[in-house]
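A sample copied in:

***
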Amino acid sequence: MGEIVLAAKMTHVPTLQMSEQEGPLKGKRQAAIDGHLEIARRAKELDVDTVVICDTHWLVNAGFHINANAKFEGLLTSSEFPQFIQDMPYSHRGNPALGDAIAAKATELGAFTLAHHLDSLDLEYGTLVPMSFMSRVHDMKVVSIAAFCTVHDHDESRIIGEAIRAAVEESDSRVLLVASGSLSHKIWSNKDYAPNNGTFTISSKFNQAVDMMVLDMWKNGRHAEFLEILGEYADHCSGEGAMHDTAMLYGALGWDKYTGKCEIVTDYFPSSGTGQVNVLFPV
């Protein structure tokens, strides 16, 4: 019987990659990188074999979709930020059986979902940035789930989370579940970015205040209270991918029955106007 043994909300900002390159950002995101490495160390200690990543950079407009290919290999240049992520090599194994099982279970529960086995379906950087660091510590198979959901509601994404848990428990996999995305996500306007030192600042003090309130809820296990505001939080604070990654995470953890007290692995930091963090959700 399989099990979700570790769960996390993780940042994937491109400046993590740039932090390891020569230039003005070198070393600036080391704390976030260290957080990724620490989560991978925890996964290794728990004998995790597969990481399921709900990726807010994979945009979908109809149905839910899972990249369940057996192998992922290539070079990533971000179409969004080609000046930030260029020719980043990657090579990861997949877990097709688990990806297929999640899709089948989600469809059975009422959220139509397709699993894909296509070499031409690339992974997005919401999956590849965390994996680029975590794979240094622990070799894990990857299943990537689209979580930039434009015509879906959070109740449907909750079902995806429930399907992840059910499929994992019917498998022989030990899983790290990752919600890959930010907290608030109001990126600086193009004209305001440079004057406000946008790489290192938040674009809205209101968003930052709500982010800190949410982290306090998570640290104190007030998840039912958080879920009551999830929709408004996503709307008013421009949640990345409408925060469908977070809804999926909570669906897998038991939704409003979940009471775990979260651990902040990387302290909150602003990036390009957005609020970022690495947080472990105990299971």
